[in-house]
Amino acid sequence: MEITDPKIITAIEAVWQEAEMLFEKNDLARYAQKLEEAWDLLPVPKQQYDDSFDLAFTIAETYLELKDFPAMLRWAKMLQQCDPERDDDGDREFLLGMAFFENNVMTEAEQYLTIAMHKSGGRVFEGADEKYLHVFKGLTAVTAEELPEEIYQQIESLSEAGNVLAEEENYDAALAKFSEALQLLPDPKHEWEASTWLHASIGDMQFFKGDYIAAKHSFYDALNGPDAAGIGFVQLRLGECLFELNEEERSLEHLLRAYMLEGAEIFSAEDSRYFDFLKSRVEL
């Protein structure tokens, strides 16, 4: 079903354009958030519209790229209900099978990957990681390129100096050290593990300075790093920044992820307002 309200169509197209600009900058964390904003603009029931399939599919794929597998699974499940009149050759089942695989739910992974294989005649597996063809073996192949030793040592030295300055509550000076270290990373910076903790360290200093807008952007940058979505601290601070900016729905999402990753303990040293807010909105 197509959307008929021209105002909604225009609004969604505008958000899509903003999202594409973020994609071109390889800013996948903000890209996913922007696509979710487009989803929120769909009329209810959202799943009946043609655009719902493309949005849910792209959001799930983006979370796969970000290695935020719980979010990927949530959207891959949503995808199964989208645009029910649409003909497809196993694409939606393949994405859901991958999502179950990445979340280590192997029985369901096998079920949906098998459906995808039959419906597509194997087409959907072309170019995909071969580990999905070995669902029972749980095959994984992870290679991590290491930074050149000289650059690594410089980044370590600057980061240690930044940590000392942070402990002294000299946030501006610490921020300068972390920023200098970040600039030493080879491009594309987001592909290095160090980018996650350097962006997070920068964001932490901005948070303590009360510059919540800058801190929010830094933690979104941190989320673009390898496996960053599974780091409780990054989710926590981003949620806290969003809370301070009155973006409560986004804040709730990230605070809940922090809680799911590390439990209530992660809130123990934080202002009680954040955990109180989470408890007021979610039954823990």
Automatic annotation (TrEMBL):
<keyword id="KW-0802">TPR repeat</keyword>
<dbReference type="InterPro" id="IPR011990">
    <property type="entry name" value="TPR-like_helical_dom_sf"/>
</dbReference>
<protein>
    <recommendedName>
        <fullName>Tetratricopeptide repeat-containing protein</fullName>
    </recommendedName>
</protein>
<feature type="repeat" description="TPR">
    <location>
        <begin position="155"/>
        <end position="188"/>
    </location>
</feature>
<dbReference type="InterPro" id="IPR019734">
    <property type="entry name" value="TPR_rpt"/>
</dbReference>
